[in-house]
């Protein structure tokens, strides 16, 4: 005889659809975890058959061969990850420092500077980098860091500032040092907002990274540029669709990481 388990499910019974949705975090999270990969796969299959059925000339074939696509995709991923990693290493500690009482009054000034960096057109930032420090992969990374720093910096400050001050004072009353309060109380409670900022920066760098081809850094922007320059629609569509697919894929992975790192109960 089956024994009822907690939550109303009978032990030994197969989980129904409602139980599966609950375990995956509800309908929105369910569709993000299972629907997004299915959508990405469908788009990639559709793109493959679209390109395969085109009558490609030599210019299109030179851009759409497997080796070129793989090379440009790897370059784009490297640009995205390196620039986002540098943003995290710079913006998160800076955001933490700007929430400390001694320097909190300077946070509006720093945020204003960061706002200027993001308000500047991305192609303008890349051109300025090219003029001042030259062209290449490193210069493109510098430009992406400047452009994507604001979401991480802002969310770090907002996430830490929204922590209940009573919890902070109670922790200090228990004998915890300032560093211990930050590590054990403030940072864990600010994780959802902080990770949302990192996720935003990641997607910004995927999109802005397409412009890196104009400063000699390669990436999927190469395919888009070739398609526009030589009026080759299959090449243009391939570069654009692969960029969108990469953004969806990284956003999906970042969402899963965000769920895994989110403290229970938040």
Structure commentary:
The chain has one domain: MetI-like (MetI-like fold), CATH 1.10.3720. 76% of the residues lie in helices and 0% in strands. It is mainly alpha-helical and 266 residues long. It is elongated and about 75 Å long.
Outline of the structure:
The chain has 266 residues and is an all-alpha fold. It has eleven helices and no strands.
Radius of gyration: 23 Å
CATH level 3 topology: MetI-like fold
Q: Give me the secondary-structure category.
A: mainly alpha
Shape verdict: elongated
Largest sheet: none
Query: What order do the SSEs take from the amino end to the carboxyl end, as H and E?
Result: HHHHHHHHHHH
Layout of secondary structure:
Blueprint: H1 17-23, H2 27-52, H3 58-64, H4 66-98, H5 107-119, H6 122-133, H7 137-161, H8 165-173, H9 178-208, H10 221-229, H11 233-261
